[in-house]
User: Which sequence fits this backbone?
């Protein structure tokens, strides 16, 4: 079903009259009559989340958004629109709000699920390299095995735009299209490496997510290499996404690719 056919279906079955484009990088997003949000994938290599047990459970926990399964596939997804949700610039987040984000991440890690893949960062890099038509696989040999304890559902894309607060200052975590199964600490790597927290905020997140001094010390010691792997992964991801992105989004993916690559290159040339 192409976009025109999908719009016609929604007009007929839900009496939709307005399809208003709204912000979104990885997908095309539309606000429908201030009632629904429609997300459409423009690249078949990057399908939307279809783990409806995960999606429904997140909604039941007041963590996610209600998805209409009857109007959702790997390539488009309809959800109810929620007013008064907004992201908050990292520098403006209070410790109380950071607490709520940490609790939200832990809730996500406890959600039941049905079809999430267990896949390593190295294997994801290989997939994205294929999608970007690159043959540069040799450098992946530098990867070392990361600790694999505490395997849970990972959000894996904890950018600021996916962490929203409602008018009651309660947190919502949205967009599960990159969710996989993996060690829980990787979502803290995602949160820290994909946002611009102060050092005090970073320390607060680490010290309040992990339960023991040993876990805190181990994470802090290993965080630079974890971040290196994430930057490498998202550099390759951005290169792959750029392949089929609409013209107006290609430049944004190019900027992400450059930023992440420059960070990996800087780390690789750092003396320890």
Assistant:
């Amino acid at each position: 079903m192409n976009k025109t056919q999908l719009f016609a279906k929604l007009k007929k079955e839900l009496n939709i009259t307005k399809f208003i484009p709204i912000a979104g990088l990885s997908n095309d997003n539309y606000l429908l009559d201030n009632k629904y949000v429609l997300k459409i994938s423009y690249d078949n290599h990057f399908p939307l989340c279809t783990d409806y047990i995960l999606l429904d459970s997140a909604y039941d926990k007041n963590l996610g958004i209600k998805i209409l399964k009857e109007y959702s596939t790997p390539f488009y997804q309809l959800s109810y629109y929620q007013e008064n949700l907004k992201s908050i610039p990292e520098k403006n987040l209070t410790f109380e709000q950071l607490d709520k984000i940490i609790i939200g991440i832990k809730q996500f890690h406890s959600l039941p699920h049905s079809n999430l893949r267990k896949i390593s960062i190295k294997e994801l890099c290989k997939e994205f390299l294929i999608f970007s038509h690159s043959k540069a696989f040799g450098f992946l040999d530098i990867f070392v095995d990361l600790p694999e304890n505490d395997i849970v559902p990972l959000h894996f894309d904890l950018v600021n735009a996916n962490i929203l607060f409602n008018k009651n200052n309660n947190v919502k975590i949205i967009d599960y299209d990159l969710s996989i199964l993996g060690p829980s600490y990787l979502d803290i790597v995602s949160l820290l490496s994909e946002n611009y927290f102060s050092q005090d905020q970073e320390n607060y997140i680490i010290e309040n997510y992990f339960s023991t001094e040993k876990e805190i010390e181990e994470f802090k010691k290993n965080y630079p290499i974890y971040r290196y792997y994430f930057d490498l992964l998202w550099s390759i991801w951005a290169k792959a996404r750029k392949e089929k992105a609409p013209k107006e989004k290609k430049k944004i993916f190019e900027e992400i690719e450059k930023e992440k690559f420059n960070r990996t290159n800087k780390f690789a040339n750092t003396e320890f």
User: Anything to note?
Assistant: Residues 132 and 240 are 4 Å apart (CA to CA). The chain has two domains: 3-80, 90-268. The first strand starts at residue 19 and ends at 22. Helices lie at 3-14, 52-60, 95-109, 121-131, 185-193, 199-209, 213-244, 247-268.
